Amino acid sequence: MDQTTHESGAYDFSAAEARWQAEWEARNSFATADAPQGGRRKCYVLEMFPYPSGKIHMGHVRNYAIGDVIARARRAQGYDVLHPMGWDAFGLPAENAARERNVDPAKWTRDNIAAMKADLKRVGLSVDWSREFATCDPEYYGHQQKLFLDLWRAGLAYRRESAVNWDPVDMTVLANEQVIDGRGWKSGAPVEKRKLRQWFFRITDFADDLLAGLDTLENWPERVRTMQRNWIGRSEGAEFSIRLTEPCAGIESVPVYSTRPDTLFGMSFVALAPDHPLAAAIAATNPEAAAFIAACQSAGTSEAAIEAAEKRGFDTGLRVVHPFDPARTHPVWIANFVLMDYGTGAIFGCPAHDQRDLDFARKYGLDVTVVVAPKDDPGMAVGDVAFTGDGAIVNSGFLDGLAVTAAKSRAIAELEARGAGKGVVNWRLRDWGVSRQRAWGCPIPMIHCEVCGTVPVPEKHLPVRLPEDLPFDRPGNALDHHPSWKHVACPQCGAAAQRETDTFDTFVDSSWYFARFCAPHAPVPADPAATSHWMPVDHYIGGIEHAILHLLYARFFTRAMHRLGQVGVAEPFAGLFTQGMLTHESYRTEDGKWLYPEEVIRHADHATTLDGRKVIVGPIEKMSKSKRNTVDPSAVIARFGADTARWFVLSDNPPERDVEWTEAGAQGAFRYVQRLYRLARSVAADRADDVALERAEGAARTLRQATHRTIAAVTEAIDGFAFNVAIARLYELANAIAESEGRTAPGLAAARREAMSALIRLAAPIIPHVAEEANALVAPEAGLVVNQPWPVADPDLLKRDSVTLAVQIMGKLRGTIELPPGADAETAIAQALAEPRIAQLLAGATIVKRIHVPDRIVNFVVRP
RNA sequence: GCGGAUGUGGCGGAACGGUAGACGUAGCAGACUUAAAAUCUGUUGUCCGACAGGACGUGGGGGUUCAAGUCCCCCCAUCCGCACCA
Q1: Is A5 helix (H, G, I), strand (E, B) or coil?
Q2: Can you give the distance from the CA of residue A813 to the C1' of nucleotide B58 in angstroms?
Q3: What is the per-residue pLDDT across A501-539, written as a single tens digit (0 to 9) for each?
Q4: CA–C1' span, A435 to B24, in Å?
Q5: Bridging pattern class, strands A582-589 and A659-660
Q6: Cα–Cα distance between A687 and A487 in angstroms, integer?
Q7: Greatest Cα pair distance in chain A
Q8: Vertex A677: Cα angle to A674 and A680 (nearest 5)
Q9: What is the average per-residue pLDDT within A45-71?
Q10: Residue A51 and residue A111 in contact, taking contact as beta carbons nearer than 8 Å
Q11: Which residues is A461 bridged to in the sheet?
């Protein structure tokens, strides 16, 4: 009896998984070289690296299982596969832990990495761990500082003022997620906007290219490309000045941007962003305006908060002159829905043809003039819905009668002729602010000298290391509070100077790690030869929540590095796959306390606690610690094994959708793993059969056909990331092998061995441990499964002996017929008409049309 | 508010415009067992009817087509993102 079989004959996953993981590690099965290997095609598989929270969760298991299936399948298919792993190790949680529990964020992070790595290793991933690094390694962030200096020298980084959320009680900058309903999450104090000098990357320099590049990303989900396109937000419009009737504080006119210059005659007001310079000038002498602006500032900086807020405005009393009609004047308002960061921070309002303007106009009783008349309703009156479609321009002087597009050009030409403005391309995309007032991040390698200004840290002094004794005893930036860290001599003049105490946004850390993985020990940030070989990432796998920011920043950063000659490609991710989230029922006691699933006994129609108290079963929601509806993968792996966990998270539904963890599903997965092993034992016990595979007949040939159909179907399904479909086909093959047991047919033993070998290799990317175990029973002479090639389907065995066609009358199914594949229309229709039931139903009716789709259907269209 | 997606049996889901419900899970009936678990066999969309057969059925409403889960239009619900969470 071998050591992984219980006395009962059951598969002992625990011993087997540890043994095969050790075996792969001892053989270095997943190590990859930086350079090309003998003409083998390369495949770079990368899952978004994790934040080291300390424990893996089921979302990680699913994310890494998806990547691992692809990596293992590609390896079997003959590719040279790069599949690395690392840690996105800077960020707020470590800092919060430091404050709350007085621990060193570095130690906290290192401990978390160690724990998570141990968890991940038990999942049995085909990862080349020799490439592992964490973004908090001084070596990594030192290279990042070098990259920043390169970007700065290339003019792609600069410093300017920008607003942050300021908590006036805790005296600290808040992240948007720390602002809840306009208040600080801890202090509860209303948040203020405050301007700080901050570092920015000039991502807008690449706006055009980032947009155009999307068209080349054929292996990205269309929805992600659409989201990025909308985010970049290219628009064509007009930028022009609108003259005030009287100057205000020396300001004579207001520049506005509009994508609808065709509706200029429908203008009824001008609206300024609350932080617009003219608004500030007005507020200086008008306390009411100042109060209104102050009220707007408390909303926080997030666009969602601003736009979801009720539209409010303040009439400044100023008026502007209409650019095309000096006789008309319009009021100037300050409005909370106008964004300073978009366009010029001021708009003209045309309520009839813009919903936000209309809502605003209705609220404050402003004029609504229709200037675009829909073709089917030329006399349209506007109620509460703005008309934004095409039509003919009316009430608009020289624009009258034109269509919208023509009117835009005409209006722009007129503005240019009058010297008032011009046609411009505008982008919604803003430059990327990377300064964070946080201590647990990559220090920005700059020094502020009173004499020399802002001076870069000399490269020989990189990395600028974080101090090991960060003081977290008071709010604010611990790096800034450190007694000595920031005080240095100016590298240029030697005078006393101060280090920049802001650190980088952690999105910077994750914007080039995939390039570093290609040569993780190179003396430069990215090794050009290694990145030229491995980049782009062929399959990048992660959550849909990263669809915009992370992916856009990484695309920008790669372009910047490419421009500087540091990586071989401009586009980092050739293929993208976005997975759904893990969800689970949530449970609470009657007094509202959240319960973990393991504290709950689930009955058929209700649930109780372990000691019998009533449990309220909540909706199925995204797993989160706060609701305690999490399932701990370590516990699942200990109970069922890694193979079961991997199989379940891939089997239940398409990977791009959310998956609900269910006990029943896990049990089902567990049964399959056991069943695979039992089948292998059964096949291994078959007596040899001297009939060759090629001469298999009857049940043996049927099994061979099933095997080869499964090979074709599973290969296609895995290529398309349809793991749930691949798994359904693997169930079918297992069923077919089980059915063949005890039967007799020429070549059946050989056919069963063939089927089992295919099943093992096809299932191996998903459940690699039991696949090795089964292989050791059935075909030990073939060597480890990880070194075996992917099975290939024999086209002859994919051919069907006969096909079933549906026979329809008026599109309704009325019967089926059996035909040889490829039968022509005449044969099919004749046979359909010969069916007694069809003939009966057609009797007395006139057939007006006969439709035949080869190997699919016959449909008769009849008249009674 | 804006942008993007999703919706099919009790549940997860499958389905080049061509037999809706593959496969799994749950349920029911049976075999094995002292018993339970495991395993195996059969069965299961709803309604009518006898297992023949029929009607209905893919979030709701309309349309295109010989034929619609699939294409088009409108609506509803849920989820993701919104620039300092990662």
Answers
A1: strand
A2: 17
A3: 999 999 999 999 999 999 999 999 999 999 999 999 999
A4: 50
A5: parallel
A6: 81
A7: 107
A8: 150
A9: 92
A10: no
A11: none
Question: pLDDT digits over A653-691, tens only?
Answer: 888 887 777 888 888 999 999 999 999 999 998 887 778
- The amino acid at residue A306 is I
- pLDDT at A2 exceeding the cut of 60: no
Query: What are A413-444's pLDDT values in tens digits?
Result: 999 999 999 999 999 999 999 999 999 999 99
How far is Cα A774 from Cα A684, in angstroms, rounded to an integer?
9
- Cβ pair A711, A733 in contact under 8 A: no
> E strands along A582-703, which residues?
582-589, 594-595, 600-602, 607-609, 614-622, 659-660
Straight-line distance from CA A535 to C1' B84, in Å? Answer: 30
| Cβ-contact A385, A417 below 8 angstroms | no
Distance (Å, rounded) from C-alpha A337 to C-alpha A53?
37
In the prediction, which pLDDT does A24 show? Answer: 97
Protein-proximal positions, strand B, CB < 7 A? 1-6, 11-16, 18-20, 22-27, 38-41, 54-55, 66-68, 79-86
Strand nucleotide closest to residue A857 (CA to C1'): B18
Measuring CA to CA, which residue among A38, A120, A487, A407 is closest to residue A238?
A407
A190 - beta bridge partners?
A183
CA atoms within 13 A of residue A660's CA, in its CB half-sphere: 10
Buried b (16+ CB within 10 A) or exposed e, A67-79: bbbbbbbbbbbeb
CA distance A193 to A109: 31
Confidence (pLDDT) at A6: 45
- C-alpha span between A50 and A484 (Å, rounded): 33
- Phi, psi values for residue A814, rounded to 5°: -125, 0
Rounded alpha-carbon distances, angstroms, from residue A394 to A265, A322, A360: 9, 17, 23
The DSSP string of A200-231 is: EE-GGGGHHHHHHHHTT-TBS-HHHHHHHHHH
How far is it, in rounded angstroms, from Cα A286 to Cα A453? Answer: 37
Tokens standing for A755?
């089927």
Q: pLDDT tier at A186 (50, 70, 90 boundaries)?
A: confident
pLDDT tens per residue, range A343-353: 899 999 999 88
Give strand letter and number of the nucleotide nearest A427 (CA to C1'). B83
Tokens standing for residue A601: 């006994």
Q: Beta strands of A465-526 (E only): which ranges? A: 487-489, 496-499, 503-504
Distance A808 CA to B20 C1' (A): 15
Q: Residue A816's beta-bridge partner residues?
A: A806
ipTM for the assembly: 0.94
One-letter amino acid at A512 equals W
Cβ neighbour number for residue A751 with a 10 Å cutoff: 27
Task: Identify the residue whose tokens are 């030329």.
Answer: A378
For A173-195, give the DSSP string.
EE-GGGEETTEETTT-PBPEEEE
The Cα–Cα gap between A763 and A290 comes to: 68
* Structural tokens at position A256: 């506005």
Q: Which residues of A578-617 are buried (b: 16+ CB within 10 A; e: fewer)?
A: bbbbbbbbbbbeeeeebbebeebebeeeebeeeeeeebee
Q: Which of left, alpha, beta for A337 (phi over 0: left; psi -120 to 50: alpha)?
A: alpha
Task: Return the ∠ at Cα A159 (arms to A156 and A160), rounded to 5°.
Answer: 125
The answer to whether the beta carbons of residues A439 and A503 sit under 8 Å apart is yes
CB atoms within 10 A of CB A46: 24
- In angstroms, how far is B15 C1' from A799 CA? 21
Tell me the residue length of chain A: 864
H helical segments located in A519-632: 528-534, 549-563
Please say whether the beta carbons of A504 and A432 come within 8 A: no
Strand stretches in A748-793, DSSP E: none
Q: Does residue A628 carry a pLDDT above 70?
A: no
